[in-house]
Specification:
Strand order of the largest sheet: 3-5-7-6-11-12-10-9-8
Number of helices: 6
Largest sheet: 9 strands, antiparallel
CATH architecture of the largest domain: 2-Layer Sandwich
Number of domains: 2
Distance between the termini: 51 Å
Number of strands: 14
CATH class of the largest domain: Alpha Beta
Order of helices and strands: EEEEEHEEHHEEEHEEEEHH
Structural class: alpha+beta
Radius of gyration: 20 Å
Length: 329
């Protein structure tokens, strides 16, 4: 049973899904539920012997199209508000090859994935119970992955989640004060400075943010104001795939092993059009490593105060990643 509860002190929602405790946890490759169904073997989530990209509803969803009533019953007044867990929870399989990662697949496969992201963003955005579509990937056990098969996820939230909402409200304040999109201004400044740029092409730039929270955090942003994937032309989608592939290669080359990370696509909310002027498509990568054998843990300052501490200056991180990204032909 699922339900959502509102924290009256912060205005933030928490979703509860007891069934997620039963989801498959780190099976062997021979028992992976995301591999194709092989002849003579038990059926997996994909009843085909091969595939390129697959999207399906998560068997252990946090949010769903027609959720049952909350098990806790009616809300206990304004301090204990409870709602059904309405929304969407989808899984995106990148390849039928269990051993690959997105970094191994190259720009053409990433380009196909961009098309899938755009399609799901558009379709989920038409649903009444979805106000924000969040495309993301958790890669590596350090990020809590329970299935090693190359895959990502797409959540359709009934409201704008806290971090995208903070970005949007900050961008709205910047627009009112300066008459410009803050992301457009940041992209222009990063390209002019150059010291934090990891890679760029005609349409997208990858850079370590000036105030990066994680040692090797990278943002990939459109050079022009594009609120969502749907606003990109075909050549721009090609360009996005090329830069994403470059960042992924740089990550894996940084310490000599496949880099764990969380990748999140931020784009315009789907509930109405009032955020379009301040929504600027960008992809955020937050890998946990600060060195090959050292992780950046979220501790008292981050979890208790929401104030990040970083051990690596963004300019140093960008220089290391840029050297790897630009060494590829």
């Amino acid at each position: 049973m699922n339900e959502r509860r509102l924290d009256a002190t912060t205005g933030e929602w928490t979703t509860y899904s007891a069934a997620r405790q039963e989801r498959t946890f780190l099976p062997s490759a021979a028992h992976c539920p995301l591999c194709p169904t092989r002849p003579g073997e038990p059926q997996t989530e994909v009843p085909r012997s091969s595939y390129e990209v697959v999207v399906f509803d998560n068997r252990f969803p946090a949010l769903m199209a027609d959720p049952p009533p909350p098990p806790s019953g009616a809300a206990g007044g304004p301090l204990q508000r409870v709602e059904a867990a309405a929304g969407a929870t989808e899984v995106v399989l990148y390849s039928d090859d269990h051993a690959l990662t997105l970094a191994d697949m190259g720009a053409p496969r990433v380009r196909r994935l961009v098309e899938v992201w755009a399609d799901r963003y558009e379709r989920l955005g038409l649903r009444d119970e979805v106000a924000y579509v969040l495309v993301f990937e958790n890669k590596g056990e350090a990020m809590g992955v329970t299935l090693h098969h190359p895959h990502g996820q797409i959540y359709g939230y009934p409201e704008i989640p806290p971090r995208p909402r903070l970005e949007l409200t900050t961008a709205a304040a910047h627009l009112e004060a300066n008459g410009t999109c803050v992301h457009c201004d940041v992209v222009a400044r990063e390209r002019a400075d150059g010291v934090r740029v990891v890679d760029e092409n005609r349409s997208f730039v990858a850079y370590v943010p000036f105030a990066a929270r994680y040692p090797y955090e990278v943002h990939v942003a459109s050079r022009r104001h594009a609120p969502s994937l749907l606003d990109l032309t075909d050549p721009e989608r090609d360009a996005l795939a090329d830069v994403l592939a470059s960042v992924l290669r740089a990550y894996d080359g940084l310490f000599g092993f496949p880099m764990p990370y969380v990748m999140v696509v931020h784009q315009a909310p789907t509930d109405d059009g009032r955020w379009l002027a301040v929504s600027h498509l960008h992809v955020e990568f937050t890998p946990p490593h600060r060195e090959a054998g050292k992780l950046k843990y979220l501790a008292g300052s981050e979890l208790g105060g929401g104030a990040f501490l970083n051990d690596v200056f963004p300019e140093e991180a960008a220089a290391r990643l840029r050297g790897i990204a630009r060494s590829w032909p």
